[in-house]
Amino acid sequence: MKPDTENIAANRPGILLVDDEPHVLAALRRTLGREPYTVYVAESGDQGLKLLEEHPDIAVVISDYRMPGMDGVEFLQRVKRYSPDIQRVMLTGHADSKAVERAVNESEIHRFLNKPWNTAQLLAMVRECLEHRLLLEENRQYERELAERNRQLEALNRDLERKVDERTRALLQAEKMAALGRMAGGVAHEINNPLGGILAFTQVLLRDEQLATEGAAGEALHTIQECALRCKDIVERMLSFARPDITAEKRLLDLNAVAQGGLAIACLHPRAKKTIIETELHDEPLPVRGIRSALEQVVVNLLQNALKFSPAGSRIFLRTRLREGTAVLEVDDEGPGIAAEDLPHLFEPFFTTAEPGEGTGLGLFVSYGIARDHGGDLQAGNRDGGGASFSMSLPLAAE
């Protein structure tokens, strides 16, 4: 049993006396027994070691140097190995210079007590030993407390660094958004003019009832008009990053219907014919409040992003679900997935991993802004079975 270092100071400390001469033990015991100590005696080193194991309250060991069998130096060496904190005192005569030398070098004793001893000196020495033992325990407690404080401080520093990093990234993202908004403001007029012309000529052609209802041609005209209007919405969304439109009216929508609307547009992509898009919509309506065209644009962007990286014959999964009080729309694919180094940059403007000419790097950026503008979030990751996974969460609206 190891010494109970936590309770020695609070209780009666134990003093172990080891000497092969009974009258020396009796004299020491008589003197120390008057003090608030518990005194143990042993006539050999072996008996002393056994008492150490039986009594964890022993804080000070006083041992004679000359004993048959195991001498005092060897005994105190073993005491030191058993518990370095136990205070070790050597009883020796004035002429035992070799004993002093061995005790210092091998046992690292704390005090010497010469024979014959002075009672006041003996009591003072024991008190000093106990004070030193208590000081060791207090230092160890301070070290534990300091280690715990350092651990807490390191945790706080890591948390602070994480928050600073998050704020820094947020500021950089805000700067990029503002730069994009300023750029979009400069080109919006140039984009809107041809869009206006496309819409105008399309609407003129749609006034021709025969042409508007003439199978593939009429369907193509309606698709051109719808896509042109969607382009106009994209430009307006880009502008909103720099000049948020607080007057835009958000209506009560069903996320299932939004998913179906976005799917219908995404299926016009040529690659949709080479890929299987599976839908799994929530059984009940998922009411959210938002701008339908904007949320449908998110669905279109996510599906087209999946189509871009999906090999022919693979599957894309479009799901809606209720999760912890939020409406969730997920788009998963069976493509190559997202590289770890690319994940932090996916929602930055103009960032793209596609081949040159395959993308502008604005689709996910715009989609992220739309999700945040609707009080939600857009997250990206990798599926366990391979492929990318995107998840847009929106707060449920009261019906």
Q: How do the SSEs run, as a string of H and E?
A: EHEHEHEHEHHHEHEEHEEHEE
- Which shape, going by the Cα principal axes? rod-shaped
Largest sheet: 5 strands, parallel
Give the class-level CATH name of the domain at 248-395. Alpha Beta
What is the CATH superfamily of the domain at 248-395? Histidine kinase-like ATPase, C-terminal domain
Count of alpha/pi helices: 10
Tell how many strands the DSSP assignment holds.
Answer: 12
Mean pLDDT, as a whole number? Answer: 82
Task: Briefly note the CATH topology name of the domain at 248-395.
Answer: Heat Shock Protein 90
* Helical proportion, percent range: 40-55%
Q: Helix/strand/pairing class, anyone? A: alpha/beta
Low-confidence stretches: 1-10
Q: What would your notes on this structure say?
A:
Among the domains are: 14-117, Response regulator (Rossmann fold); 248-395, 2-Layer Sandwich (Heat Shock Protein 90), CATH 3.30.565.10. The chain has helices spanning 22-33, 45-54, 72-82, 97-107, 119-206, 209-212, 215-242, 255-266, 292-309, 363-373; strands at 14-18, 38-42, 58-64, 87-92, 111-114, 251-254, 276-280, 287-290, 315-323, 326-333, 377-382, 388-395. With 399 residues, it is α/β, with parallel strands linked by helices. Strands 2-1-3-4-5 form a 5-stranded parallel beta sheet, sandwiched between helices. A 5-stranded mixed beta sheet has the order 7-9-10-12-11. A two-stranded antiparallel sheet has the order 6-8. 51% of the residues lie in helices and 18% in strands. The two termini are 70 Å apart. Helix 2 (45-54) runs parallel beside helix 3 (72-82), helix 3 (72-82) runs parallel beside helix 4 and helix 8 (255-266) crosses helix 9. Mean pLDDT is 82; it is low at 1-10.
